[in-house]
Each structure stands twice: as C-alpha cells, then as structure tokens.
Amino acid sequence: MSSNTANVNASQIWKAALAAIIVSIIGNLVVRSVALALFQIPPEFEPFQIPRIAIFTIAGVIGAALVFAWVARGSTEPYARFRKIAIIVLVLSFLPDVGLVLGGIPGATWPGAISLMVMHTVVAVAAVGLLTRMTQ
User: For residue 53, which of 12, 23, 47, 119 sits 20 to 30 Å off, Cα-Cα?
Assistant: First the structure.
C-alpha cells in the first residue's frame, strides 16, 4: 500500500499507540541517562524526574494517536497529512523547553532543555513511525 492511501486500519491505532508508548518511554529513559552522564543537570530540574517523563511521554503518544485517528477519518491522504501535523507539533513542542531556561525555572539549563527536545523527538519518531506503519 502507498503511504498516502486512505485505507487506515483504525482497529490497529491503539495497538500502535501502546507500542509507541513503550518504545518512547524506553528511548526517553536512555536519553535521560545519557544526558545525566554527559551534562550537569541539577536534580531539582523537575522535567527530568522519571514519573514526569513517563506521564508526558504517555500524554504525547495518546495525543498523537487521537490526532491520527481524527486525520484518518477525514483525509484522503491521512499518512502524509499526519506527518505534516506531527512535524509542526514537534517544532512547537520545543517552545516550552526554551521557556524553561528563559523563564528561570529551578535547575533549567540549556543542556537539560535540549535533552527534553531530543525526548520530544523520540516520542514523535516512535509515534509517527508506529502509527503509520502498524495501521496500513
């Protein structure tokens, strides 16, 4: 099937989302571990706490799945449209990370903020990749 087909297997969306949650959480914990090893990220930097990483990762994937389901219902090219939306949302998701540093949030540093951006990218790649592949 072409990646621009309207034939989305909607029954697979939530299975794909669950797979994306698992892959994303593992990936983000790896990013966290590498960032902590390479940079001096203060322990008071709350976005780097494991529960917060898990909650925001799950929320991001669920949000992606909901958007994909919505796009799949109304688009003749759901895969292409979803990828475009995902890129825009990913770029916009970086803004709060920049705001953490510029806003003087306790423990916020540029390496920490950039690490969060990498985590957002992990979620986007996993969610878009699995949602678009597992539903064809």
Answer: 12
Contact 127, 60 (CB under 8 A): yes
Domain holding 73, by residue range, is 10-134
Provide the pLDDT for residue 2: 43
Distance spanning both ends of the chain, measured CA to CA: 7
Q: Kindly report whether the global pTM for this prediction surpasses the value 0.85.
A: yes
- CA–CA dist 11, 50 (Å, integer): 31
Domain count for the chain, please give it: 1
Confidence grade of residue 7 (pLDDT, cut at 50, 70, 90): confident
For residue 45, what are the contacts with CB-CB under 8 A and spacing of at least 6? 105, 106, 107, 108, 109, 112
Contact 118, 42 (CB under 8 A): no
Tell me if 2 is assigned to some domain: no
pLDDT for the residue numbered 6: 63
